[in-house]
Design brief:
Four copies of one chain form a homotetramer.
Chain A: E1 5-6, E2 11-16, E3 22-28, H1 38-48, E4 65-69, E5 71-72, E6 75-76, E7 81-86, H2 108-115, H3 131-147, E8 151-159, E9 162-163, H4 172-175, H5 185-200, E10 207-214, H6 228-237, E11 242-247, H7 258-261, E12 265-268, E13 271-274, E14 282-283, E15 286-287, E16 292-298, E17 308-311, E18 317-320, H8 331-356
Antiparallel strand pairs in A: 1-2, 2-3, 3-7, 4-7, 5-6, 8-9, 8-10, 10-16, 11-16, 12-13, 14-15, 17-18
Helix pairs in contact in A: 1-3, 1-8, 3-8, 6-8
Chain lengths: 366, 366, 366, 366
């Protein structure tokens, strides 16, 4: 209700500020009996953490996750997993000079309008650091999806106007080969160049993330208000910096005719399939069994070295330059965050569908 | 949980099928003591109903709303409003020949995969008729917002590739002047021409709806998972046919630099304002006090007269032409639906903020 | 959030006032493909309606239910069921003289404190008539439970201090043999006598309802906050007039020792069973597989013919006698309401358990 | 959904097992700007912890709470509070011999039926240790209520059949004077004697906790399903060991007549009051402004030294004696837990009422 919980049957509640004691998530509704090595979660966090490459922030945050509850003898017990990531760097002094200033593009002003006060150390709760908790929780969902054969692959489609020609099917392995997480090796080099230029200019760049999901069975997803794409849009648009979401043909469908947009059904090896996939894997909010394909638009980071005009708490004009080790482009590091949110949504939909499947309830114990 | 409820403190639950007894909504969490004439709701429904102009379906559905509970002496009582819209046309015989066919672009196949059966009369629950309940519920929210000075104006930005040059500020009056609900009179004529061409060809067109919201105070909206734009994306993407959502600069922000994207704060007449509004009225998920501006991409309608290839329930190839009086372009009629969902989200956020405002709770009775 | 919705996966939203157009429920999360004759629901409503016997109100409310959505060819479709019960008697003139008076034991005063106004016609939303919607929704749950072999039997244990010696196992058939719904024929006569005496004196009586549930499998129910007995207490205590709830040995367990209270586990025909059932069928909030047994204390109805002292809206002293055809004892008519709420809770718990069962998710379509 | 979250606007999510790394709570929806010293929370935990007196378990668990998020410069920020209580004793070896045995009165069997496995170290998630998280979260609610003038006082009404003659008004100070937390000094001595006898016999005792709430304004609480007493029953019945709940006259009302049960309204010093308070401070689910008074029945603890008959996982008969330092009576330590749950419910109801108060929404920023 206050915004820190997401999901229905698989439910994630996060907490923590960028310069407090740490960030984390309580993950409830985890199916029991699932082997869950902590390394599995750590691996995803490592993909999100700063300092992983030349194009990301040079802050060193090891982001080590601890599982403080819900696991017994290496398996989930069905009770809540508590995932905690301690903050190791506390240089809140970096922020002393910003505490009375409303940084452009940041949530300083709105948090103060909402709450009457704000934790000004490093953006507090509105920091991108909050997404570490999402990634940890998403890894739990990912583990269960993976065991069920569902694969979620995110990658950079575009940075600073340079667009990848993604050669489908994109696999995680090919994505991880370069610092920008783009499956197009050539364009990746160009993207990196653009990021370096922006960084040198004290500026920042945006881009587009694309995600493909394979293996979600037809029938998952709900009607009306909780259509799969609506939940996915909610999940993805809730990531700081995401400004747009589209599924399948997306905004492009606005310029198509119905005869081109509609995906014909065909029978292939005895299964009903779609000949094309403009729908992006959902019809009426429910999975068709085809790949689910969506994109998220990511704005350039708000923290830039260039001088910007703004005001302070006393409503006086002010100029601000954001020092520190900020990301000139958040796209490569947001890829695992978008994947995480997608996994949370998909597992939740599949659990809801497990409950609602035809056949009623069963009365066998256990 | 099963998808038919939306909202937190202002909560809408809808029901009904296109060819059942009717559709409707239970609206809970309505502030008490609000004068609510039934005509106010009816006026919004009239904007959505088919048959209102030459470019929409010629079906005649008067869509008369009845308020069956929650109103006393013309005012809301704080108890649930039950809004019911009886179905008057029951020509389910139109659909007899489609009952074993999976129409391309429709939810026939996915509903059957999900539920094991489907109400094949006119798309059942997945019909666009379901949105009448949204519009009715949204009108209730709109009434309360209007009394508080919050204005929500939706309009057609683009149809079939023809884009309006919207002259801001757009007002409802100018939007209602033409059949496509576009504030650009010249382009509206061109849009109408395109729709007529598509219709003649047995085809359909998509487009883009834009919404501007004025008067939401800074501080409304929530952090992390329930950011205002995330709830709005959820709401808008849950409307059948919407394939993309973007706020402020949206997908365009992916190609901007931070120094151009960031909106500088300034002081104007003693108030803190944003010099530009690339953020679309939200920072960190919370309203800045500027206009909230978002867009929704609408695909071309699935029901077209042209012959399409598909399969039937026996997994045999089939050809299908959808007869009947379908909309060649749903954009003009979806405008009030998008507005309705926006109003539901905004009122909900403002009620949540009312509860969470600094100052704790008060202990005065009543 | 505003109090008119109950349940998680099986979710009931009710609406309506005693002297408005009608009352009803939207039931969401109904498993698809269940044959549901309207007569099945009507039968339960007939057990609740006034005028069914000499000891209940003589008001004639036929309480005919209509299913306005969610059913197709006699089966549930998985989409929301809308159950509507029109009000047929509108004698709100009966209440004109009470509109400025706060009746003792009624919610007149508190509704006005909460909402700033109230629908004074026959108690409005706080009327017992609201429970008709619960019974209708509970019948839907009951239908599904019945098909799964789960049986819920409620009966009158005590009225006006006369306590039945219930001969277990109690079956619905034996309960329906007398006007007070008590399985003890002899005591039932005495209960009826007491009710008639109270009625003649312009007074009213309370009592206790007991419910036994058979066939819930071990494992249903949730830990911590959503223990089966906690959800059941919530559900049952939400019925107007219920003032206490206990499960198994209940308040009696406060005077037992651990060695007597603990139910020993035994093996019977290869199954683990409890030798006694002081726990009432739940341990740690989760069903043991034994009968679930609980009791609800019901206060005497507030509407009595005797003169009572009170105040009016102007804070002046006043005297009030409640005329009209009120129940001198609500216990016999509350039995089906308690059963209904029990069924809603149990089906909900079983659906949640269906989703959370070990074995993860499956990826087969449909 | 999986049972570990409670509340609507003030929402508590708990986690942790008795012999894992710790237990804790994420508290969301905390009003911002509230001074919250950690000592305030610690004080409540000290009232719950074992080893505090001769009649409780001699286990030494310091139960030190840490606030890991949501606090800045000593004040709440409106973002989630993370309260963590590390487990210091890990003697899970105590439980090795019990890991294949289903202890009578414990949740061993039901957890295994539900989840397919269980954390057998010290009852795992079903341990009473879970309630430490409730007490910590409840202290946060208590802090806010206290600042608003709402007081919640719980005390032991009965232990082992010895009933206190509580001299109202009961205050926390008088309750804390003795080891059993009973306001009746004389009977407290007798209660202590009974507990010592039970302990010596390797047995345990139950009892009754009573709670009085002062200062909740008329109008708090919701109608129909979320009546204040229904939420309270849910909250209190969710505490392990509570077997019954009653409000006001409770089960006693079943034997009253309406003319005695109904509380007459009177005017006192210009305010509308109830002459008696059989209703226990609520009518129609909404607070009357009178004291809210309720009772909870607490069963004798399941862990006793006496030999008990049971079965093991192989369905073989077994005998079990529970060694270790268990409470012979949990009533004195459950008092702060019941208070905590009451505070959570009350604050939640008051926040919901803050949102829903007549007067609509306001559009002032901040």
């Amino acid at each position: 209700m206050a915004g820190n919980t997401f999901g229905r049957l698989f439910r994630v509640t996060t907490f923590g500020e960028s310069h407090g004691r740490g960030v984390g998530a309580v993950v409830d509704g985890v199916p029991p009996g699932i082997p869950l090595p902590v390394e599995y979660i750590q691996r995803e966090l490592d993909r999100r953490r700063p300092g992983q490459s030349a194009v990301t922030s040079r802050r060193r945050e090891p982001d080590t996750v601890q599982i403080l509850s819900g696991l017994f003898e290496g398996k989930t017990t069905g009770t809540p997993l508590m995932l905690f990531i301690a903050n190791e760097e506390y240089r809140s002094s970096d922020y002393e000079n910003l505490k009375d200033i409303y940084r452009p593009g940041h949530a300083d002003y709105t948090y103060e309008m909402k709450y009457g006060l704000r934790d000004w150390r490093g953006s507090g709760r509105s920091s991108g650091r909050e997404t570490a908790a999402r990634v940890a929780a998403g890894a739990v969902a990912g583990r269960i999806l993976e065991l069920s054969g569902v694969e979620v692959v995110g990658y950079t489609l575009e940075i600073g106007g340079v667009r990848a020609e993604a050669v489908h099917p994109v696999r995680t392995e090919s994505v991880e080969k370069n610092a920008v997480r783009s499956p197009d090796e050539e364009r990746a080099k160009e993207m990196i160049r653009r990021i370096e230029e922006a960084k040198a200019a004290g500026d920042s760049l945006g881009g587009i993330v694309e995600v493909v999901v394979r293996g979600v069975p037809a029938g998952a997803g709900d009607p009306v208000f909780d259509k799969l794409e609506a939940l996915m849009a909610h999940a993805v648009m809730s990531i700081g910096g995401v400004r747009g979401f589209e599924i399948g043909a997306g905004f492009g469908s606005a310029r198509m005719t119905g005869s081109h947009f509609n995906d014909s059904f065909i029978v292939e090896k005895g299964n009903i399939r779609s000949e094309t996939n403009n729908a992006g894997g959902v019809l009426g909010g429910i999975a068709t069994g085809e790949d689910i394909l969506f994109r998220a638009a990511v704005r350039p980071p708000a923290s830039i070295g260039k001088e910007q005009k703004t005001v302070n708490r006393k409503k006086e004009s002010a100029a601000v330059r954001i020092g520190g080790r900020h990301d000139p482009c958040i796209v490569p590091r947001i890829v695992p965050v978008v994947e995480a949110m997608a996994r949370i949504v998909l597992l939740d939909c599949m659990l809801v569908q497990k409950a609602q499947k035809p056949g009623g309830i069963d009365t066998e114990s256990g």
